[in-house]
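EI: anyone free to look at a 194-residue chain?
SC: sure, send it
EI:
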Amino acid sequence: MSDPIPGTPEPEPIRIPDEDLDDLVSALHRTMAEVRQHGVILDRLGSEADHEPGSGPTEPDPEPADEPDAAAPLFILAVGGARYAAELAELSFWVTHILLPVYGREISSTRPWCAKWHEHPEAVARLHALWLAWQQLTTADAGHAGPATWHRDHLDHALLQLRAPDGPFAACTTSPSRPAHRVLSTPDQLGRAA
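SC: here you go
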């Protein structure tokens, strides 16, 4: 970490109230949302700085009606470049630290999983949709039934599809002594090979 800039106050540490210690996942979710909001503000400030000085006051560019709000979560297949990489990094954190430790279960040929899941487009899409639903249904605003709804309507179906013997990880071996990873061809790739 670099030395602090002289004359600038040191940032306040993040403090989690005692009543939230039992709900660390909720606190983490709120912190991530706050960080995203700060990113949106920084992006806006950066775009305002790009305008030429002396050209008078600038009006913010109106957002097109069909363009979603930058702070709103977008499905990962609808973004690219740096935004895709950032979404995938956040998704990876959630998969590694929340989803798999709780719902991972044993890997077998009838219930496969691939350590390189992020290279399987279908897995990324399904996991991202599951994560978006988790973000919406595990907050205090979702009410007491939110988590149960997430399990019933989202988690169970997504895991059945992902871990099916013919699912996206079907070509990846499950033995730690013989690891193998292969992304299955899609119909459009098969047509191009002919």
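EI: Confidence is low (pLDDT under 50) at residues 52-68.
SC: 👍
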